[in-house]
Description:
The complex is a heterodimer of chains A (187) and B (598).
Chain A: H1 2-33, H2 35-38, E1 42-44, E2 50-53, H3 93-107, E3 130-131, H4 133-137, H5 140-147, H6 151-160, E4 162-163, E5 174-176, H7 177-185
Antiparallel strand pairs in A: 1-2, 3-5, 4-5
Chain B: H1 6-35, H2 43-57, E1 65-66, H3 67-91, H4 107-118, H5 128-131, H6 134-164, E2 170-172, H7 174-200, E3 210-223, E4 241-251, H8 256-265, H9 286-310, H10 314-341, H11 344-347, H12 364-377, H13 392-403, H14 414-434, E5 439-440, E6 443-444, H15 447-473, H16 475-478, H17 485-500, H18 515-543, H19 561-594
Antiparallel strand pairs in B: 1-2, 3-4, 5-6
Helix pairs in contact in B: 1-9, 1-12, 2-7, 3-4, 3-6, 3-18, 4-18, 6-7, 6-8, 6-18, 7-8, 7-9, 8-9, 9-10, 9-12, 10-12, 10-13, 10-19, 12-13, 13-17, 13-19, 14-15, 14-18, 14-19, 15-17, 15-18, 17-18, 17-19
Amino acid sequence: xxxxxxGILLFVxxxxxxxxxxxxxxxVLAQAIFPKQxxxxxxxxxxGTPAGSALIGQPFSGPKYFWPRPSATADFPYNPMASGGSNxxxxxxxxxxxxxxRAESLRETGITDSIPADIVTASASGLDPHISPRAAFIxxxxxxxxxxLPEEKITALVQNHIEGRQSGFLGEPRINVLKLNLAxxxx
Amino acid sequence: xxxxxxxxxxxxxxxxxxxxxxxxxHFGGYMKRVxxxxxxxxxxxxxxLERVVYRISGIGSDxxxxxxxxxxxxxxxxxxxxxxxxxxxxxxxxLPLNPSKFPGFSWHLAINTAIxxxxxxxxxxxxxxxxxSYFSQILVLMVHQFLSAASGxxxxxxxxxxxxxxxxxxLGNFWVDLTRGVLYILLPIAFxxxxxxxSQGVIQNFSPYKSIQLLEPTSYEKPKLDxxxxxxxxxxxxxxxEKVIVKEQTLPMGPVASQEAIKGFGxxxxxxxxxxxxxxxxxxxxxxxxxxxxxxxIIPAGLTYTFGRMAGNTxxxxxxxxxMMLLFVLAIGALYWAEYNGNPxxxxxxxxxxxxxxxxxxxxxxxxxxxxxxxxxxxxGAVNNMHDSLTxxxxxxxxxxxxxxxxxxxxxxxxxxxxxxxxxxxxxxxxLMIGRTPExxxxxxxxxxxxxxxxxxxxxxxxxxxxxxIALLVPAGxxxxxxxxxxxxxxxxxAFASQANNNGSAFAGLNGNxxxxxxxxxxxxxxxxxxxxxxxxxxxxSLVKKKFVPPSLGTLPTDKLPFIIWLVSVVLxxxxxxxxxxxxxxxxxxxxxxxxxx
Lengths: 187, 598
């Protein structure tokens, strides 16, 4: 009996420490030291309105914008209320059809090269904010044509937006699509 | 042009393995001092707090327990936690800190989730951002990420005492071991790690969800529903849809970093969001990624050294560490190779390169593979890429790591005690073959030890096979699969392997939130956690009474390379004998289909 009482009291004491004091202290310190990061890394347009989070991708499908990776989130692509991947297995016919269709619609924009895997496959979170540099370069010609701008100018913009490997060796070089598209609107 | 760069990937993998190995001594030594009640770095700050906790709970810090008392205390504590968690999840709708007004969980989901978090599994049949309030996330789910981890660590410490103490009765005090684990090990490091993660972009707030105007509105076809909520269909049976224009995106918020830190550090794996560590708010950069992997590995790796120090011979600890590391490196290599080669069905479409379905660009192949191997070698179960979309052989690697019984580092505490049970089986088998007396660290291995070791090692596997068979025979089991054929079998096999071994990751296409899967999964998690835990404590109770037999010419040295290789072989042989048929029908057949052979 005494053990049950001890168990309950210790459970309450440790819950207060780990479930209230710990997250409260972390929150206070995090917001004091890293106010921007702790609130979701929101980026703003030139006019001061929030454009989105630098970490969360947005759906772009019109010809004038760089396209992000396909997203498998429920209802609509890049729905942060339903993060997740397609969970399609490698031999699933639906996966092969989807990838084939996406590759086809890219080819219709005049791409003759092989297509980088990231731009035709769904990400794990469905919110991946990045594409590989090559996935951006193959879209340059289409965007230059749609926006009546010289290709060199768009290529230079893409070049400027390549984020390298972190600390020189971690991860992959990548491009944040939302930031790139915001810059595109400012050209 | 290949998408990935092998040189950088290898550099990242090596850097992580070297850092972990270098820190094993320091961290393992620190944990030894904590559990032996010696003065340590944090005693001046945390000592007074520790005493307050004992006074509130009425704990005598030098009262010793025999194995039965230790086991009963552990069960009481876990049961209390389970009941409280079940109640809070059911009543979530009436509780505070719920800005999105989420209702309570269904009864079967609440049972499954409560058991899942108490058993350190963190299988999640719910989706965090659309089902769990901030109150539930921090006061229920996160609290148990601390407590279940500390429970597991306490059990392995009691087991080590059972091996080390001679002609004794008691194994320590469960309440004290639990409290010390939380106060000195889990809390301080989780605290610093949470801030490191925020610096990378992991969010930490209690704000309501944020609405963001999309730069370019999008649209989708939404199925029309009748009053009963069922889809209305036209004459040809197709659902009628209406076009919905989406102009906004709702960004979920929350105290994510505090949970993210303990999620990995306690090998729990339960993420704040559905997408877990692939979600940019949980794991925003390549550095946060490798840092999370480090957190996942360091306690299970460090405990091998704690074991060596407590046993008075650090070589014994390094022998276990080396065996684990050998299996780990093999797994990383195999997974990397499979994913690097990609999917020939997709290559045929003019899309060459690695398998990118279900992966994030920022982590690259190295960061994804390293995470998958680490999260399933340990019993963490967080994911930064979708295991359901791995290539067949690639997906088999995490599955095998789980099926081996979570001994390649394994869960905090549970990994080491299961590996030590394997070591005892290895000593026994070797003893039979070469005619030497089976002894481990000077303790004779007899009938009780063998029984308990076999239970520890096989319990989870038995339940995996039973439940998979049931699921394949009943409609309720089959209807949850999202992929058909051998991949569907893999989904079900992975689900029960993950739950019975308290991992918690998933081939997430399987719809786990049904009465059938919630309840069978709950049973698998309970059995997989408590059968080995009780067997290990019973074994400790038997070992602690024995006298020390000094090593003689007839003793098999357990700190030398031949034993390490033997131990690795025993682990692999037991795993292969148990699961080869199931693996052959799932991932191996699918691999052949993918290569165009069948």
